[in-house]
Amino acid sequence: MAERRRRLLALSVVGIAAAALVVVGAILIAGDDSHDACQAPEAAPPAETALMPDGLSFDQIGTVTSVTKDENNVNVQAVTTKPLDEVTVLIQDAVTAAGYDPAGMDNEGDEAEVFFQAGSVAAGQARVEESDCEGRWDIDLDLLDRA
Questions:
Q1: Could you say which DSSP state residue 132 is in?
Q2: What are the residues whose beta carbons fall under 8 Å from the beta carbon of 48, sequence distance 6 or more?
Q3: Residues 6+ apart with CB under 8 A from 96
Q4: Radius of gyration of the chain (CA)
Q5: Residue-wise DSSP of 53-119
Q6: Terminus-to-terminus CA distance in the chain, angstroms?
Q7: What's the pLDDT tens digit per position in 33-76?
Q8: What integer best gives the mean pLDDT of the chain?
Q9: Looking at the DSSP assignment, which residues form a beta bridge with residue 75?
Q10: Which of 49, 87, 96, 102 lies most in the core, judged by the most C-beta atoms within 10 Å?
């Protein structure tokens, strides 16, 4: 009987150790990427930034992270650490330098939109929203491709 108890105890210890290894392995595989999301943003490659309209520069605004283009529109995604009030003016200046006309702004303190036109046609908008990362703003600029 004592021998049977020792076997059961040994099997229980082995089972608990195996369960602990499975849990530790799952944690290591899943990792904690919550901090990784707030690392320095990776700049879009030159092949993407070449898709931006002539004259449009985010050098004074922040890091362009993605640029896509379809038959009608150009989308620029970027990240900045500048204050919201400042970044909306910088976006307006940058897009105006690319030949678009400012058409208004809506700043609610925790997000903002900047609107543009080309002549009398609505030509796009920039949305600036708080990032999940402290002190960072996400920019999503959609413009009518005039090329």
A1: S
A2: 64, 66, 67, 68
A3: 102
A4: 26
A5: PTT---TTT-EEEEEEE-SSEEEEEEEE-S-HHHHHHHHHHHHHHTTPEEEEEEE-SSEEEEEEEET
A6: 88
A7: 545 669 999 999 999 999 999 999 999 999 999 999 999 999 99
A8: 85
A9: 68, 142
A10: 87
> Quick one: tokens of 55?
């004259």
**Cα distances (angstroms) measured from residue 43 to each of 1, 69, 105, 119, 123:** 69, 17, 27, 32, 25
Rounded to whole angstroms, what are the CA distances from 85 to 26, 64, 96, 110, 112?
Answer: 44, 19, 17, 10, 9
- CA distances for 57 relative to 13, 43, 78, 81, 135, angstroms: 63, 13, 11, 16, 22
Rounded Cα distance between 25 and 7, Å, is 27
Place of tokens 């993407």: 48
Are 116 and 136 in contact, with CB atoms under 8 Å apart? no
Q: What is the pTM of this model?
A: 0.75
The whole-angstrom separation of Cα 37 and Cα 142 is 24
